[in-house]
What does this fold into?
Amino acid sequence: MMTTVEETPRTGWRGAWRAAHAPVAGVPRWARIAAHAIPLLVLPSGLWRIATVVFNVGGDGLRHGAEDSAVGLPIPVYVTLLSVFSELLAFTAIGLIAPWGEVFPRWMPILRGRRVPIRAAVVPAALGASVLTVLWTYAAIQITLGSTLQGDPLPDDFPTVALHGWRLAFFLATYAPLLLWGPLLILLTTAYWRRRSTDTAA
It folds into this structure.
């Protein structure tokens, strides 16, 4: 039988912001810092994509414009949606330290107030962390080698090929933090699992 947990009501934008970010009891300080850092680490790359592709700021040599992406959307629209989605995905790391990661929030019908099953949070977070770690490590290796792992040259519109000078340095500065996304999420997921498992056992 599923039990319900009372949520402290919070009103207004300020209350909603605090409710979304406030940690639960037992979360170590390093986990709070890591969870809040992840959305900030992802933000620069999203802003770079939007500035370069949507507003054509410093993007000489990169293919963009009105042509459609692989999913049929115009490139600027696709890049904007991708950047917003990435930031929302990064924000879910807060759920590994906040009450809404342990108890379904009030705005969710049927599930509101019920405990979030540990596996429902840990499995997606662990899979996501693994994919992110592999993805951005692979990208970093490509950039370092100047080619794919198969030895093929990078395409002409690849940022490290198309960009030079301060534009290249700016690109690298905005994307380098993404290398930390996966590892930090792995640590947060492990801490979440240990905390919830201990609470359940108690």
Observations:
- Confidence is low (pLDDT under 50) at residues 1-8.
- The CA atoms of residues 72 and 100 lie 35 Å apart.
- The longest helix spans residues 118-145.
- The helical segments are 12-21, 29-54, 75-91, 118-145, 159-162, 165-175, 181-201.
